[in-house]
């Protein structure tokens, strides 16, 4: 205990930049300090994403236009408890703060955000930050809440103790932000004399704690009373019976709304997009340009864009759950179940979201701090039956499965087959999670530590910003990766010119791979369908429609009849099983690449899922051909 | 167990986890109270340092706590 009380006087050296001139400001603070809310306040909508090489932590930066200093750049750092470089988050923070992060300018000033509801603990981060010697402003966030709940602190005394200015703010209400502008304006002038500061020398939590406790006593910090109704609400929301019940209501409610409201909206959106494409197509005439722009690019991009309404709706719900504080409770309830497959409670919401679409689900894994758990969740997410699989499922089931009633009229054979495909995907996700967690992503030493924040009413502003941010990411994917792939596919299916699809390059490839897929009961048309559906799963239905429509033998038949004419039951079921397992989705691959910041993971995922799909489809075809 | 409070004595966990827990408030001499269990029985929610933090039994068992003199509720 003797090491904890040593203090040293540190000479603050001015930053080795052009004296007094600041350009880059960093925002740092512990998790749950309201840092992101403040960042959004200060930068508005014009934020950019910084992707540091070899780093999976995604960081935002933007101009400080929210306080009229658009000439300054604000870098948002990950939420950290200390500068102890055990975690990747902290390593990123330390590298940026020391100006050692490639691609990030070295900072000239620091904004340190602390949650004033738990100031004593949050102050522990102040010691290592202040010892960096950069001009720093300490912001006591949520000070309005602290005061209404009977807490107090002498900010003047605190400023003296820390040797830097201190300001009370409320990031969610936007009060007290003038102090930041004032601080930055002042810092743009020549640096004043360097203050002396007593900081703990040994960087262990105990000495920081002692130091923080000392300061909070001397500044007469009085912690606010914890909100009584959070506790009351918890005894209901986490109750032995009411807890799980409400949890299920929330889960099914979200699921139901995303489908019942989201699906019609998405369909309407699709008609709108198709209509727009058709109108523009008429203007362009009937040439190759029209074919490239409308049949190629527009159809490909819009087949992805139609998921936007559902994705935004899903994110609205996840946002409300997260901001209100319920998500942490949901994680607490789900933890026991998720643990059985080697994941933790925080993986539950992403996996649930994946029933709509894997892309937002993978983006939602950001709430999982443990990197290995997060990667395992990302890797199993695409097994959950997303809505893009439904078109091909519905087509094949309608064409091949008679609708014999099983449980009365309500539940027939077709529904049973559909349900078993859902179960199949879910089981594959479970098995893969187990496999990953006992091999390449073996449980790391990081335990499951879950902070239960107090309940709050989510603000429209923060929900809106989140939707905007996620929507932008999705549209960017559609506008870049998907665009490129559809372009390539269109070219491959139209060269040589004026030839039908079977004679095009892609047609040849389809015929060339036929020997490989024949054991699955597929023919070359299905092969081309599989190739085209690498863009997005639902594309196969359109491709099959075109192919069978162009074939004189099946031209007069409907698509369902044509498929029955051409495929066995074994082949048809092998196809849906293939789709249950295969990674036929460029958007998902792109988002996995983005979230893991490496091509290694999406490549592994693609290979693993393709092999699994092939083997499972083969088994399905062999078994069905033998027994039926 | 639930509703009982105590004082943290030692943490017998790897350094990395110990640091994380200490930053969450699980510091020797800190008062801790078991508030409630998850409906499934585990994890348990602890009140510490004005915050509520949930830990699984597999983690909590390595934090030794002595009974505090002033028994609260």
Task: Give the gist of this structure.
The complex is a heterodimer of chains A (628) and B (73). Chain A is α/β, with parallel strands linked by helices and 628 residues long. Chain A is 56% helix and 9% strand.
Structure in words:
The complex is a heterodimer of chains A (628) and B (73). By secondary structure, chain A is of the alpha/beta class. Chain A has three domains: 2-225, P-loop containing nucleotide triphosphate hydrolases (Rossmann fold), CATH 3.40.50.300; 242-260 and 307-458, no CATH class; 495-627, no CATH class. Chain A contains 28 helices and twelve strands. Chain A has helices spanning 35-43, 88-97, 119-122, 126-130, 143-148, 155-162, 178-187, 205-218, 228-237, 242-260, 262-284, 288-305, 308-324, 326-339, 348-353, 358-364, 371-380, 390-400, 413-437, 460-494, 505-512, 514-517, 524-532, 539-550, 559-566, 569-581, 586-596, 600-627, and strands spanning 7-11, 24-28, 47-50, 59-64, 69-76, 109-115, 136-141, 166-168, 196-200, 405-406, 408-412, 449-451. Chain A has a seven-stranded mixed beta sheet, sandwiched between helices. In chain A, helix 16 (358-364) runs parallel beside helix 27. The longest helix of chain A has 35 residues, at 460-494. Chain A is elongated and about 90 Å long. The model of chain A is unreliable at 1-19 and 190-194 (pLDDT under 50). Chain B is of the alpha+beta class. Chain B has one domain: Ferrous iron transport protein A (FeoA) (SH3 type barrels, Roll). Chain B is built from two helices and five strands. The longest helix of chain B is centred in the first third of the chain and has 9 residues, at 15-23. Chain B starts with a strand and ends in a 6-residue tail after the last strand. Classes of the chains: A alpha/beta (628), B alpha+beta (73). Chains A and B meet through helix 8, helix 9, helix 14 and strand 12 of A and helix 1 and strand 4 of B.
């Amino acid at each position: 205990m003797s090491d904890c009380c040593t203090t040293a006087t540190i000479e603050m050296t001015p930053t080795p930049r052009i004296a007094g001139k600041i350009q880059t400001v960093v925002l740092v603070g512990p998790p749950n300090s309201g840092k992101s809310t403040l960042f959004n306040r200060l930068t508005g909508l014009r934020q950019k994403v910084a992707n540091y090489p070899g780093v999976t932590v995604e960081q935002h930066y933007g101009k400080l236009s929210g306080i009229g200093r658009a000439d300054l750049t604000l870098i948002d750092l990950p939420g950290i408890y200390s500068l102890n470089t055990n975690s990747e988050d902290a390593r990123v923070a330390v590298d940026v703060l020391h100006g050692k992060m490639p691609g990030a300018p070295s900072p000239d000033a620091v904004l340190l955000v602390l949650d004033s509801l738990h100031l004593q603990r949050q102050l522990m981060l102040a010691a290592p930050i202040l010892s960096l010697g950069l001009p720093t402003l300490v912001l006591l966030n949520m000070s309005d809440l602290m005061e209404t709940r009977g807490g107090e602190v002498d900010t003047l005394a605190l400023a003296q103790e820390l040797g830097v200015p201190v300001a009370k703010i409320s990031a969610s209400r936007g009060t007290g932000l003038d102090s930041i502008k004032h601080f930055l304006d002042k810092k743009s002038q020549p640096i004043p004399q360097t203050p002396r500061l007593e900081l703990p020398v040994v960087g262990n939590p105990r000495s920081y704690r002692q130091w923080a406790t000392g300061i909070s006593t001397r500044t007469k910090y009085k912690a606010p009373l914890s909100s009584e109704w959070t506790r009351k609400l918890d005894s209901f929301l986490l109750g032995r019976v009411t807890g799980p019940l409400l949890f299920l209501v929330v889960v099914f409610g979200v699921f139901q709304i995303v489908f019942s409201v989201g699906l019609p909206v998405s369909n309407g959106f699709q008609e709108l997009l198709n209509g727009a494409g058709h109108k523009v197509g008429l203007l362009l005439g009937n040439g190759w340009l029209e074919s490239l722009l409308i049949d190629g690019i527009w159809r490909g991009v819009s087949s992805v864009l139609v998921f936007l309404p559902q994705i935004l709706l899903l994110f609205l719900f996840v946002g409300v759950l997260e901001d209100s504080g319920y998500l942490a409770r949901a994680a607490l309830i789900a933890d026991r179940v998720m643990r059985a497959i080697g994941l933790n409670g925080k993986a539950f919401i992403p996996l649930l979201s994946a029933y709509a679409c894997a892309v937002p689900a993978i983006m939602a894994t950001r709430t999982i701090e443990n990197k290995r758990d997060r990667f395992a969740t990302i890797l199993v997410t695409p097994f959950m039956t997303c809505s893009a699989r439904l078109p091909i499922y519905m087509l094949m089931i309608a064409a091949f499965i008679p609708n014999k009633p099983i449980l009365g009229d309500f539940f027939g054979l077709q529904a049973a087959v559909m349900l078993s495909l859902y179960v199949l995907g879910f089981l594959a996700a479970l098995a893969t999670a187990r496999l990953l967690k006992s091999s390449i992503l073996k449980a790391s030493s990081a335990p499951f530590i879950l902070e239960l924040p107090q309940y709050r009413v989510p603000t429209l502003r923060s929900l809106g910003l989140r939707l905007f941010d996620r929507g932008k990411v999705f549209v960017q994917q559609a506008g870049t990766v998907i665009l490129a792939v559809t372009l390539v596919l269109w070219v491959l299916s139209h060269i040589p010119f004026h030839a039908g699809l079977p004679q095009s390059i892609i047609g040849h490839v389809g015929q060339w791979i036929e020997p490989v897929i024949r054991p699955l009961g597929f023919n070359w048309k299905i092969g081309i369908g599989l190739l085209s559906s690498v863009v997005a799963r639902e594309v196969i239905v359109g491709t099959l429609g075109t192919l069978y429509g162009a074939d004189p033998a099946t031209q007069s038949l409907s698509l369902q009849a044509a498929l029955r004419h051409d495929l066995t039951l074994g082949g048809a079921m092998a196809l849906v099983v293939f789709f249950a397992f295969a990674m036929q989705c460029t958007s998902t691959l792109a988002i996995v690449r983005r979230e893991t910041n490496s091509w290694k993971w999406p490549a592994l995922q693609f290979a693993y899922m393709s092999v699994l799909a092939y083997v499972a489809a083969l088994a399905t075809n062999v078994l069905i051909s033998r027994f039926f | 167990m639930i509703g009982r409070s105590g004082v943290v004595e030692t943490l017998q966990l790897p350094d990395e986890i110990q640091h994380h827990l200490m930053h969450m408030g699980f510091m020797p001499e800190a008062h801790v109270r078991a508030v409630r269990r998850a409906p499934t029985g585990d994890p348990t929610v602890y009140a510490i340092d004005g915050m509520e933090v949930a830990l699984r039994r597999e983690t909590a068992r390595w934090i030794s706590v002595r009974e505090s003199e002033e028994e609260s509720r």
